[in-house]
């Protein structure tokens, strides 16, 4: 995965124009709530429009007033599905906040599960990743590797160019582990006449490499292509184009490895949730190979994965499902340990009739994901377009709210505990 720019469809960043509609039941009818001008249907539901940056505050206020959030949907999606006049809303003031209620700030809600037990996070130290290699090779002294192979990943009829590129590390001291990245320095000079700077790419292979011989490293690279904002001219990324058309045998300048944010837990009984778009699949492929590939399992007698892994993968078309055969082969072989879910935006529809993006899949399975996330053995990894984060947070906010839990607070706690891992661009 190239971390230097967001080069996939901007449509994938949609999240209801960052305004969401809460469907709430059970709000107390008293002098305070009478001031809110909520239009209450005969069903007892209240629909409240809330800007994204006020979601958690509004959830806490609703809970304080005795309400229960039964659903959260992007405002635009609800209007498309229900019609613009079929649901009432609270007014939003000029400051972008939901209709205010004159009430003192509430105390922080205690996080409790459905049985009333206080929910706690893993307080033990993070998984020990002893001797994680970092910056073995630096920009001023890179390792000169060689391209072994450069294979297309997008099938006929797909969108764009994405390549799986394998490099020979023979003669180097470059060691890495799953979830790390390497830097690539393209040849030539930039527009200022200075040598090109390195670009970081997530590693798509395990520490043993695709050949399980500890001599290679692989990348998943999409050619960056965009329109110049002033001239309208098509511009191609310097490094991604260099890599996508690299010939076997060609030299390449490699730096790193870097990164400790996306490392896998060492516990073979862990539960691993993976959410990826496009080339964000790169580290997920490394994880899955380590968990399920026969040769990898043979090379790692001390790590025999017996837990549960769930990959939710967002792509525009079926031909753009990168590593499709590998993924489906692993799912078929380990059906009890590996769950595979696609979100194919240009071929599948969400419940509102729009395109099916990864955040829509997360919303579909939000309650199930939330139950998994609460388990102390669960680690969640998100990699790809930054735009998917809002929708993921909105879905998990709704799921957590059903148990009176503030998602943003809970998310900070599991991140501190080393169980929430994000690398987006």
TrEMBL record:
Residues 140-264 form the FAD-binding FR-type domain. Residues 109-134 are annotated as: Disordered. It is an enzyme of class 1 (oxidoreductase). It is found in: Cellular thylakoid membrane. It comes from Calothrix parietina FACHB-288. Its main location: membrane. SUPFAM superfamilies: Ferredoxin reductase-like, C-terminal NADP-linked domain, Riboflavin synthase domain-like. This is Ferredoxin--NADP reductase. Pfam families: CpcD, NAD_binding_1. The keyword Ribonucleoprotein does not apply. Its EC number is 1.18.1.2.
């Amino acid at each position: 995965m190239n971390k230097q720019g967001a080069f996939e469809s901007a449509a994938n960043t949609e999240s209801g124009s960052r305004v969401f509609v809460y469907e709430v039941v059970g709000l107390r009818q008293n002098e305070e709530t009478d001031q809110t001008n909520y239009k209450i249907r005969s069903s007892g539901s209240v629909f409240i429009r809330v800007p994204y940056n006020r979601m958690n505050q509004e959830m806490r206020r609703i809970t304080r007033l005795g309400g229960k959030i039964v659903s959260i949907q992007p405002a635009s999606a609800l209007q498309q599905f229900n019609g613009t006049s079929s649901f009432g809303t609270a007014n939003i003031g000029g400051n972008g906040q939901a209709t205010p209620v004159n009430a003192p700030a509430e105390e922080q809600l205690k996080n409790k599960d459905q049985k009333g037990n206080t929910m706690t996070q893993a307080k033990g130290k993070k998984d020990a990743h002893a001797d994680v290699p970092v910056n073995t090779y630096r920009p001023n002294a890179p390792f000169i590797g060689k391209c072994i192979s450069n294979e297309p990943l997008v099938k006929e009829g797909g969108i764009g160019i994405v390549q799986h590129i394998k490099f020979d590390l023979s003669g180097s001291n470059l060691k890495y582990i799953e979830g790390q990245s390497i830097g690539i320095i393209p040849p030539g000079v930039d527009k200022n006449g200075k040598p090109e700077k390195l670009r970081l790419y997530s590693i798509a292979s395990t520490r043993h490499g695709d050949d399980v011989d500890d001599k290679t490293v692989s990348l998943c690279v999409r050619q960056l292509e965009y329109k110049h904002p002033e001239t309208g001219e098509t511009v191609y990324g310097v490094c991604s184009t260099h890599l996508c058309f690299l010939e076997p045998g060609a030299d390449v300048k490699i730096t790193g490895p870097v990164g400790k944010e996306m490392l896998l837990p060492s516990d073979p009984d862990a539960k691993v949730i993976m959410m990826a778009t496009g080339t964000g699949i790169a580290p997920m492929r490394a994880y899955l190979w380590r968990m399920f590939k026969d040769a990898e399992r043979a090379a790692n007698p001390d790590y025999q994965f017996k837990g549960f892994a769930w990959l939710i993968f967002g792509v525009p078309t079926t031909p753009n499902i990168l590593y499709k055969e590998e993924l489906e082969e692993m799912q078929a072989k380990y059906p009890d340990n590996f769950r595979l879910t696609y979100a194919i935006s240009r071929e599948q529809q969400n419940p509102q009739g729009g395109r099916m993006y990864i955040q829509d899949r997360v919303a579909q399975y939000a309650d199930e994901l939330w139950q998994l996330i609460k388990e102390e053995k669960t680690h969640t990894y998100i990699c790809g377009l930054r735009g998917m984060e809002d929708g993921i947070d909105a879905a998990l906010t709704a799921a957590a709210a059903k148990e009176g839990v503030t998602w943003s607070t809970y998310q900070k706690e599991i991140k501190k505990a080393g169980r929430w891992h994000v690398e987006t661009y």
